[in-house]
């Protein structure tokens, strides 16, 4: 079975034993803020429902990735002439990737998304959730986390990688960067997957392959 495209980032999250601790600390900060937090944490987007064809992402995760894509991917009128992400099924692609996250890691991934969404309030720097940040603030926040501690980097890398993969997999994004498609498709190559190397004395076909 092929590895998940974001396997490294998901594994990094799963290795972070302090993920739950970080969430607990955030929850403690929320408790201290009390009613103020309850007011700030409420978003108009909480009432928005995901499209019917989105099956793996929750309503809140769908809104979170809409905000991530807005901050990380090309928008309408960009100077490079890149295809705007809103013209492509990027969120649908992300949903497909999340649907294939291994079951044992899904809980950590969910906690990471929650942490990212609420961290701008808990930090006291922005006064609103990630889903409600302006584009500039969202870009700044993702950039800061991308250069932050190991947990922040793991979360930032995960959400941005999912967005990038889901955008660039669409052929409509290739022409502006002069990419003419995967060579395996152009040359008609057969995909064999990750075949193991032969061991000493292993017979392959009619030949005995000797190890290096």
What's the quick description here?
It is built from 9 helices and 2 strands. With 212 residues, the chain is mainly alpha-helical. It has a two-stranded antiparallel ribbon.
Average of per-residue pLDDT values:
82
Number of helices: 9
Roughly what percent helix? 40-55%
For the largest beta sheet, what order do the strands appear in spatially?
A: 1-2
CA-atom Rg in angstroms: 21 Å
Descriptive notes:
- With about 210 residues, this protein is mainly α.
- The protein has one domain.
- It is built from 9 helices and 2 strands; from the N terminus they run αααααααααββ.
- It has a two-stranded antiparallel ribbon.
- The longest helix has 20 residues, at about 105-120.
- It is globular and about 60 Å long.
Set out the fold topology.
Blueprint: H1 7-15, H2 19-33, H3 35-41, H4 59-72, H5 90-99, H6 103-122, H7 135-146, H8 150-168, H9 183-186, E1 202-204, E2 207-209
Antiparallel strand pairs: 1-2
Helix pairs in contact: 1-6, 1-8, 2-6, 4-5, 4-7, 4-8, 5-8, 7-8
């Amino acid at each position: 079975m092929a590895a998940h495209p974001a396997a490294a980032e998901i594994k990094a999250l799963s290795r972070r034993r302090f993920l739950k601790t970080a969430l607990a600390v955030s929850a403690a900060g929320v408790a201290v803020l009390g009613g103020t937090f309850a007011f700030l944490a409420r978003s108009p987007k909480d009432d928005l429902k995901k499209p019917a064809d989105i099956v793996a992402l929750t309503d809140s995760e769908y809104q979170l990735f809409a905000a991530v894509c807005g901050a990380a991917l090309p928008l309408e009128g960009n100077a490079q002439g890149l295809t705007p992400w809103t013209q492509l099924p990027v969120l649908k692609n992300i949903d497909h990737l999340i649907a294939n996250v291994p079951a044992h890691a899904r809980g950590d991934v969910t906690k990471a998304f929650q942490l990212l969404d609420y961290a701008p309030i808990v930090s006291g720097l922005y006064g609103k959730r990630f889903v409600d940040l302006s584009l500039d603030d969202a870009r700044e926040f993702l950039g800061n986390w991308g250069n932050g501690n190991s947990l922040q980097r793991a979360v930032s890398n995960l959400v941005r990688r999912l967005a990038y993969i889901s955008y660039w997999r669409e052929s409509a994004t290739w022409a502006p960067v002069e990419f003419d498609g995967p060579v395996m498709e152009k040359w008609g190559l057969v995909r064999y997957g990750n075949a193991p190397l032969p061991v000493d004395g292993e017979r392959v076909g009619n030949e005995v392959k000797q190890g290096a």
